[in-house]
Each structure stands twice: as C-alpha cells, then as structure tokens.
Design brief:
The chain has about 190 residues and is of the alpha+beta class. Helix content is about 40%, strand content about 25%.
C-alpha cells in the first residue's frame, strides 16, 4: 500500500497474487487429504479393474498421444476389485500421468499395467521406462507431501502423497521399485475386505 512507484506497485501486486494462488492450491490439497483421512465411512463398491484402467487411459488419451506413449494393459477382463471408485480413478490417473511427466527424453515412453488376484487381494502394478528415482537418496521421502525428485516446474509433489493416503484409507498399501534412467514400478495391494 505504501509503494509510490506504479511499476514497483504492479510487481508487488503480481507477487501477492501468485502467493495467494499458491496458498489456495495448498489449502485445496490439504482439504483433499483431510477428506481422505477423516472419511471413516469409506464405501467400497465392486468395480471391473480393466474398465477403470481403460477409462483413465481414454481420459488421458490426448496426453498419451502427444507424448507418443505406448501403453500395454495386461489387466484381466473379468478381474473385479472392491474399492472406492473415486479413489481408484485418482490413483490410476496420478500413476499414469506421473509416468508421462517423468518420461525419459532418450527413448519412447512405455507404460505397462498389470494386475492379478492373490491370497492378499488384488495386486496392481504400473511400470514405466522413464527417468526413474534414486531410492537410495529419496526412498524414505517418495510418498511425502510436496516432495519432488526431478527439476520440473510443473512438479508439485502432492500426487503420490494423495495416492498413498487413498490406498491406505481403503486398507491397502503401495511400494515402489525404481532405478535411475531405467524406470519405475509402483505396486499397489488392495485390501479386498469391505
């Protein structure tokens, strides 16, 4: 308010707007996490996993085509999963879009999606041949809020944190295997109990 120089005043207003926008985005992210963590009445439904994967791939088709991604979907046609449908969509969307976001500039992006039913429940894996993550350096931070591992402007460090919270809210777990410049595999175990 005290600034007299109009150019400097405009610069300060622009900075305030950016700070305000960033704060609003942070609040929205935190609200999502609070919603997931405080929703003790998570209602699971039976979903055809392959159909859910196909839907997310269709929703992301422009992004996948633009990045020349080759996606292989090995999820069995009849495999059903007991889950919160909105959480499943979010999990799939985040893991597929991360594969695209962190693709290697040196090779064509390949994403492979597998699933099977085991004695533990449904096991889902999403693999890519992208940049990979140095797990020795970042392994204990990979699912942390606002943690990023590559120098990308659009990296927010929120997606994997949300994914982990959604999976755990449904009684499941997520692990990661990765090698720098080889790729990454996220393994999700869904708890099939209601």
């Amino acid at each position: 308010d005290a600034e007299k120089d109009p150019t400097e005043r405009l610069r300060l207003i622009k900075m305030l707007r950016q700070a305000s926008d960033n704060l609003l985005e942070t609040l929205a992210n935190l609200n999502q996490v609070v919603d997931v963590n405080s929703n003790t009445l998570v209602i699971k439904k039976t979903v055809h996993l392959r159909h859910a994967v196909v839907k997310v791939l269709q929703d992301q088709s422009a992004l996948l085509e633009h990045n020349h991604a080759q996606v292989t979907n090995h999820v069995p046609e009849q495999l059903q999963i007991n889950c919160v449908p909105a959480y499943l969509d979010s999990i799939l969307l985040n893991l597929v879009s991360n594969a695209v976001k962190y693709k290697s500039p040196d090779r064509k992006l390949q994403i492979t999606i597998n699933a099977l039913k085991s004695e533990k429940g449904i096991e889902l894996s999403i693999s890519d041949n992208g940049l990979g993550i140095d797990l020795n350096k970042y392994g204990n931070k990979i699912f942390g809020m606002y943690k990023t591992f590559h120098n990308r402007e659009d990296a927010k460090g929120f997606g994997l944190y949300l994914v982990k919270n959604q999976i755990e809210a449904m009684g499941g777990s997520i692990t990661v295997q990765s090698e720098v410049d080889k790729g990454t595999t996220f393994n999700v175990s869904f708890n099939e109990e209601s």
